[in-house]
């Protein structure tokens, strides 16, 4: 029976992200009186993880499951209300978990930032997830909760009608970091994501046969490199999943609630022009090499060299990761008046600007796992506020009407309004 299941099970608990997830799960389970388990292939390794990261939690069940054994996956997912999947790259390892969750009517959350994987899963499994009455919510980590829910937060606080939102992502450290801070698994996902990015256009044509209504004035992409007073540095287009996830949410809100979809563009900001130029050169080399097998092998064999020292197989040290910080600043433009229909045209140019911000610490792993586990708990506690009976949803689509933003604020992932002005 579903009521006899564990509240959530962390699959891939011995991996780099999985270990952080167990640590956060132990804190949240105690705070919210929840029961969780861990899963993977090796019992001894799982026991060691529980002993190290959840020493104060009594009787954490250990479930053995192997991606090559479909029956073991079903036995694992059948024991959870929500499956927390930390096993990536998801393009290689994610689909068997989704199939098992559908078969056993188990919700699933993960931290993938791989647009091709997410959109392929929608095409292949959304209908089955809807029929099973379960939620599959990807991108529940740094990719892409700060951006996606940041856009939602901005729309909710705007008190009018948003036409466009530009986001500016910044990273910094408060002390000198002497080691790589990104784990190899995250880097590997990026390599294959760039390698297959040319497949996205065909995917999206199948996924979205009908275009959204044209929004005017049209949000124009800024130059390759630009300086904005919003960002306080030099900015370029952010190549991650944030924009695609946020646009999926905007489409969902339009189709579900007839809400005017905001145009979204995402940028990343660096303090100096030199940093932008160096990043651009590394990015071009990365993009070229990822398009052929020989180049991918080079990228994967020498991750530290091709990332400028930011990537290693060991990942960052906890004390150094905790000294890394992020913020995403949002500039929203629109109107103080909200029209009746989303297709109605305003007779005046946008007359309102709002600046908001989302910020936090240790974005790659610490904050990511807080977001991930709180997403799972939100499904457990507030499924009645999720505006669909099931399916594969973006975070913004799933959680826009829940208390997740409020819960993230309590965990020092801050959502705040900086300013609001009318022309």
TrEMBL record:
The chain crosses the membrane at residues 268-289. Gene3D superfamilies: NAD(P)-binding Rossmann-like Domain (3.40.50.720). Keywords: Membrane, Transmembrane, Transmembrane helix. Residues 9-137 form the Saccharopine dehydrogenase NADP binding domain. Belongs to the saccharopine dehydrogenase family. This is Saccharopine dehydrogenase NADP binding domain-containing protein. It comes from Xylocopa violacea (Violet carpenter bee).
């Amino acid at each position: 029976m579903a009521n006899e299941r564990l509240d959530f099970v962390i699959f891939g608990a011995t991996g780099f992200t999985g270990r952080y997830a167990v640590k956060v799960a132990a804190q949240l389970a105690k705070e919210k009186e929840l029961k969780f388990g861990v899963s993977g292939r090796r019992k001894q390794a799982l026991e060691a993880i529980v002993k190290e990261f959840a020493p104060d939690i009594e009787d954490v069940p250990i479930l053995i499951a192997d991606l090559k054994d479909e029956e073991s996956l079903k036995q694992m997912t059948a024991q959870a209300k929500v499956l927390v999947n930390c096993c990536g790259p998801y393009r290689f390892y994610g689909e068997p978990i989704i199939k098992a969750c559908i078969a056993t009517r188990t919700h699933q959350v993960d931290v993938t930032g791989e647009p091709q994987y997410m959109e392929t899963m929608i095409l292949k499994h959304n209908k089955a997830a809807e029929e099973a009455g379960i939620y599959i919510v990807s991108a529940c980590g740094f990719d892409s909760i700060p951006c996606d829910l940041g856009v939602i937060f901005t729309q909710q606080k705007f008190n009018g009608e948003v036409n466009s939102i530009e986001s500016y992502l910044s990273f910094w450290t408060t002390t000198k970091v002497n080691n790589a801070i990104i784990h190899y698994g995250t880097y590997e996902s990026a390599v294959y994501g760039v390698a297959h990015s040319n497949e996205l256009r065909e995917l999206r044509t199948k996924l979205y046969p009908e275009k959204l209504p044209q929004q005017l004035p049209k949000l124009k992409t800024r130059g390759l490199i630009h300086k904005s007073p919003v960002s306080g540095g030099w900015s370029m287009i952010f190549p991650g999943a944030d924009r695609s996830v946020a646009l999926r949410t905007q489409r969902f809100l339009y189709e579900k609630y007839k809400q005017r979809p905001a145009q979204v563009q995402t940028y990343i900001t660096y303090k100096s022009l030199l940093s932008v130029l160096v990043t651009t050169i590394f990015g071009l080399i990365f993009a070229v090499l990822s398009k052929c097998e020989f180049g991918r092998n080079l990228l994967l064999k020498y991750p530290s060299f091709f990332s400028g020292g930011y990537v290693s197989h060991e990942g960052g040290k906890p004390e150094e990761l905790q000294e890394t910080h992020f913020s995403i600043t949002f500039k929203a433009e629109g109107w103080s008046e909200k029209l009746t229909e989303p297709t109605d045209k305003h007779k005046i140019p946008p007359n309102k600007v709002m600046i908001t911000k989302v910020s936090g610490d240790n974005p790659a792993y610490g904050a990511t796992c807080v977001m991930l586990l709180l997403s799972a708990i939100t499904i457990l506690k507030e499924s009645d506020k999720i505006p669909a009976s099931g399916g594969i949803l973006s975070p913004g689509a799933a959680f826009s009407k829940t208390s997740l933003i409020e819960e993230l604020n309590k965990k020092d992932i801050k959502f705040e309004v900086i300013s609001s002005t009318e022309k």
